[in-house]
Amino acid sequence: MTSRPRPRAAGFTLIEVMVALAIVAIALAAGSRAASSVVDTSQRLSDVVLGQWCADNQLTDMRLLDQMPAIGKTPFACSQLGRDFKGTLVVKTTPNPSFRRVDATVADADGRQLVTISTVMGH
Fold this sequence. Notes:
Elements lengths: L13 H52 L6 E9 L2 E11 L5 E9 L5 E10 L1
Antiparallel strand pairs: 1-2, 2-3, 3-4
């Protein structure tokens, strides 16, 4: 009796399957990290835009008063799209006494500064 060679079974070895799973796991982890980064960036951009609206509103309110702003620092609170922000208006002198520099700085609820808008106001 002669022994016939066994036909080799078709398929993957355990090592090949494990290497393939490791590659897929690494790719999924990288994709997850990239997606998380996109979400964080989108949230930050949204916060900056809302903070800019708050600063613009404060500066517009000052312009509508149609008077020279008093020198000093004034805190303010702002709510945009259901989110709360804290801000500060800082009024400083300029070399020309007819004008004042106004800086509106806005931070998120955690105190991280989002935006500063500066302008010059006068009589």
